[in-house]
Amino acid sequence: MIVACKQTNEFWTLMNHFGYAGKKKLKDLLQQSDNRTCADCGAHDPKWASPTIGVFICLKCCGVHRTLGPNVSKVLSVTIDDWADEEIDAMIEVGGNDSANSIYEAHLPEGVKPGPDASIAQRTKFIRSKYEHQEFLKPGLKISSNKSTAEASPPKETSVRAPSSSSVQKLECVDGVIGHLKFTILQGANLAIRDMLSSDPYVVLTLGEQKAQTTIMRSNLNPIWNEELTLSVPQDYGLVKLQVFDYDRFSADDIMGDADIDIQPMLTSAVAYGDASMFGDMQIGKWLQSHDNALLEDSTVNIVDGKIKQEVSLQLQNVESGIIYLEIEWIPP
Ligand SMILES: [Zn+2]
Questions:
Q1: Mean pLDDT lowest for which of 29-33, 58-62, 286-290?
Q2: How many CB atoms lie within 10 A of CB 278?
Q3: In the predicted model, what is the mean pLDDT of residues 131-155?
Q4: How many angstroms does the Cα of residue 219 sit away from the middle of ligand 1?
Q5: 120 CA to middle of ligand 1, Å?
Q6: Ligand 1 center to residue 279 CA distance, Å?
Q7: Distance (Å) from CA 43 to ligand 1 centroid
Q8: What is the separation of C-alpha 179 from the centre of its chain, rounded to a whole number of angstroms?
Q9: What is the rounded distance in angstroms from the CA atom of residue 25 to the CA atom of residue 88?
Q10: How far apart, in whole angstroms, are the C-alpha atoms of residue 78 and residue 97?
Q11: 195 CA distance to ligand 1 middle (Å)
């Protein structure tokens, strides 16, 4: 029941971004089973698409598509970007991931296609081979976005539309880092007791190999930290893990609960809006509360005074009690 509500919510947030005429058509296309996994790596629930090619793709593959340039693949977020009617039509004309792959992967050798956990290097090699060099097409076929230079007429279902005029912000990448997230750990409430009467809590954030931690608050179950912890975001980021520990001078520190932070809504919004200082204050994304995450309530991503920020309230998991309030801010590279 909760899952169904969540999907409906997300879906209508998403649909509000499309023009009325395109809504129904794109809705049908998105619900097609082949479009529920990434056309390039098979990752579930892709939230990006290339109307130039006509495929739905995941964020990681999207990063690679951007490097091909908009002539080969212009990418749009299905949750955030405004779509032109002709871009929706282009997706519909191709007919979905299976249809596109029946052309682009017609002669795909075994073992070449990467999986959802593939490295950026593996993805890049495959995606360039597939769309730029078109190595897996039927012999003699060549698909070009510029029809005057096409070596052969593409089949109708893969005819390619010119990119629309709507601008897409670039995902900049400096030394494999796409930007930084500044976490302000605001406060804890009703934390668990690990010593005789109280605890000496501190918070640890982990993203990949990176760790950052707050100071230790002595004998306090409702500590106010107001401390900033900054993490670099690599291109193939995952969840940020938040853990609360009780400092113990004489033995190993005890765990006081944990929670996973999904940073994808923040990053998807940040990538789509690029230079947030060009926009007024508004809501640009949302991480929805559900039974399978630690959110106390829906967490919105907002532009505030030219900065992209998200307020998050987390119910600590694997512990008897405890809430952590924090704020996340996107720092572009
Ligand atoms: Zn993918």
A1: 29-33
A2: 9
A3: 61
A4: 47
A5: 10
A6: 30
A7: 5
A8: 13
A9: 8
A10: 15
A11: 46
- CATH number at 243 reads 2.60.40.150
Residues 194 and 324 in one domain: yes
Q: If you measure from the C-alpha of residue 165 to the centroid of ligand 1, how many angstroms do you get, rounded to a whole number? A: 26
The band of 17, judged by pLDDT with boundaries at 50, 70 and 90, is very low
C-alpha 214 to ligand 1 mean position (Å): 35
Is the pLDDT at 164 greater than 80? The verdict is no
Which of 131, 158, 185 represents a domain boundary (last residue)? 158
Cα of 128 from ligand 1 centre, angstroms: 13
116 CA to centre of ligand 1 in angstroms = 6
Q: Ligand 1 centre and the CA of 123: distance in Å?
A: 8
Amino acid 178: pLDDT: 85
- How far does residue 117's CA lie from ligand 1's centre (Å)? 9
Do residues 193 and 138 share a domain?
A: no
- Considering the domain architecture, whether residues 190 and 308 belong to the same structural domain is answered as yes
Residues 37, 149, single domain; the answer is yes
Task: Give a yes or no: residue 168 inside a domain.
Answer: no
Number of domains in the chain: 2
- Is residue 24 assigned to a domain? yes
In terms of domains, do 88 and 187 share one? Answer: no
- Asked if the structure places residue 56 within a domain, the reply is yes
DSSP state of 174: B
- In a domain, residue 74? The reply is yes
**Could you tell me the residue range of the domain that residue 205 belongs to?**
177-331
Give CB contacts under 8 A, 24+ apart, made by 311-318: 312/261, 312/287, 314/242, 314/259, 314/261, 315/259, 316/191, 316/192, 316/244, 316/256, 316/257, 316/258, 316/259, 317/257, 317/258, 317/259, 318/255, 318/257, 318/258
Instruction: Give pLDDT tens digits for 232-275.
Output: 998 888 899 999 999 988 788 899 999 999 999 999 888 877 78
- Taking the centre of ligand 1 as the mean of its atom positions, its distance from the CA of residue 114, in whole angstroms, is 8
How far is the centre of ligand 1, averaged over its atoms, from the C-alpha of 202 (Å)? Answer: 36
* pLDDT per position as a tens digit, 53-90: 999 999 889 988 988 888 888 888 887 777 888 889 88
